[in-house]
Amino acid sequence: MKLFPVFTRKLSHICNLKPYKDTKWLMPNGNPTGVYVYNCVADQRVPVILSDPHVATWYSCGPTVYDSAHIGHASCYVKLDIVQRILKTFFNVKLITAMGVTDVDDKIIKKANETGTDFKTVAKQYEHEFWADLASLNVEKPLIITRVSEHITCIEDFIKKMIKSEMAYVAADGSVYFDTSKFPSYGKLQKAPDSGEPSSEGKRNSMDFALWKGHKPGEPSWDVEWGAGRPGWHIECSAMVSKVFGSQLDFHAGGIDLQFPHHENEEAQSCAFHNTGQWANYWIHIGHLHVKGDAKMSKSLKNTISIPTILESFSADTFRMACLISNYRYPMEYDTQLMKTAEDVLNKFKFFLKDAYIYVNNNSANTADYEYNLLEKLQKVEEANIEALKTDFDTATCINSLQSLVSSAYRILKSDTGDYYPIPILLTVEYIKSVLTRFGLTLEESAESVISNSLIDTLVEFRHTVRLNALTRKDIELLNACDSVRDKLKSQKVQVNDTNKGSSWVSIK
Ligand SMILES: [Zn+2]
After folding, report:
1. pLDDT band at 446 (very low <50, low <70, confident <90, very high)
2. CA–CA separation, 400 vs 165, rounded Å?
3. pLDDT at 198
4. SS3 call for 308
5. Which of 61, 225, 228, 338 is the least crowded, having the fewest Cβ atoms under 10 Å away?
6. Is 340 part of a structural domain of the chain?
7. 179 C-alpha vs ligand 1 centroid, how far in Å?
């Protein structure tokens, strides 16, 4: 894939010439961060350039809170969390994050009618559940949360300006539509699928979209200058972002299904509102999660798995590892095999961290020495990982190279030469721990299991001593007993790993 060369040009200069005619991605003016990210407008990777190299604004489209979130949502928000953490912890970018919550919507109103309550109660309940679900997945909460019902005035002001500038018009039923015929660059994120059908609902052009929905009986509504009604979906994000971040946005993120029409419409109305050729500089779109064999996970297909349900079978770390090894932009083929693979990869790291500590604390070892091969490998992996993350946040390559580093380190841990290399092993341990925690993995056992953990430690240590003894004496009966203890522990979700220097364990689900 060809990359844009890093140079900058003055955006304002271009904008003054032809505000809405640019269908190309415009290179922002500022400081390159060294990171390249795929952009759907350019249809290739482009350099991330920020006016302040260490500060960026980031808006994510949040949930429409009418039902419980499922693991399709979980993969989207975990992957966004991973990308944000990479920018913050590997590239030293301070992110000012905001997320919009849609708490007024057809589906929320429908649910309220079905359950005999009002839309506010429904929205509150599911928003609360949403944040609890994200916390259980170790997703950092956005710094700013904007709710539609709390931003009606700024949405009204936004639409008023659109009507005044004749970029939007009021239809007979009090709805307001954006006039796409006055915006030549419409379709720059994704070519608009022209249905060829005549326009309906009082629209002038078939691609025009509602900024405001005229009042219908039984629906919540707000009185505005041109009548009563409620906001359309797309206008919410534009108006709330403009209120929070002003006329320019660095990152705008959401699931790939939002690229068209939601983000296209957001970009069109925001460029028109701010009289600019480019509103959001970087679009981050997360690939869908597919249940293997199905097209997409959705409520209507009744193939959803809730977040608490998945966390009964797998840890939040395992789910995050599944996201890491499938990269943010690509579809994630969900099945038990994927989760088992993710768990195996995670356990490989956990075992290594434990085995390494047993190794460095081995008092019977010879005098310590350096092991240059491993130090060289460590340095190469560090450099390669930065390159991978710079290149559109390629976490899968990173995890692969960490695994290969672990394999190299194990050659030292398992060596029978009697040589002792605690320093390169400890540096490797620290590096692996630091990368994994920067990706948002906790690597922790749950707090309530601390006591049982120390009991398991004692048992595993005792078994190790017995086993070594049995090996020396070639006592088959005792070795069989050791194997049986190992198998029983495994059935209790404790996996034991034996080496000649000690035995370690991790908990599995
Ligand atoms: Zn949005």
Report:
1. low
2. 54
3. 57
4. helix
5. 225
6. no
7. 19
- What is the model's pTM? 0.87
- Work out the widest C-alpha separation in the chain, in whole angstroms: 93
Paired tokens of 75: 């993969």
Residue 20 falls inside a structural domain: yes
* % residues pLDDT > 90 (the chain): 73
Ligand 1 centroid distance, CA of 100 (Å):
7
How would you classify the pairing of strands 502-507 and 168-170? unpaired
- And the tokens for 435? 């990368």
Of 288, 386, 406, which Cα lies nearest the Cα of 345?
A: 406
Q: Cα–Cα distance between 444 and 248 in angstroms, integer? A: 40
Residues 394 and 306 in one domain: no
198-219 pLDDT per residue, tens: 566 789 988 999 999 999 998 8
CA of 4 to the centre of ligand 1 (A): 27
- Whether the bond between 193 and the residue before it is cis, its omega within 30 degrees of 0, is no
Q: Ligand 1 centre and the CA of 307: distance in Å?
A: 23
Residues in the chain, total: 509
CA 352–ligand 1 middle distance (angstroms): 42
Q: If you write DSSP's letter for every residue of 39-60 in order, what string do you get?
A: ETTTTEEEEEEESSTTEEEEEE
The contacts of residue 79 (CB under 8 Å, 6+ apart) are: 286, 323, 328
Residues 201 and 57 placed together within one structural domain of the fold: yes
Domain boundary among 414, 444, 474: 444
Same domain, 182 and 69: yes
> Which amino acid appears at position 412 of this protein?
I
pLDDT tens digits, 147-172: 999 999 999 999 999 999 999 999 99
Whether 331 shows a pLDDT value over 70: the answer reads yes
Query: Which amino acid belongs to residue 271?
Result: C
Among the listed ranges 80-94, 198-212, 471-485, which one has the minimum average pLDDT value? 198-212
Residue 278 lies in domain = 11-333
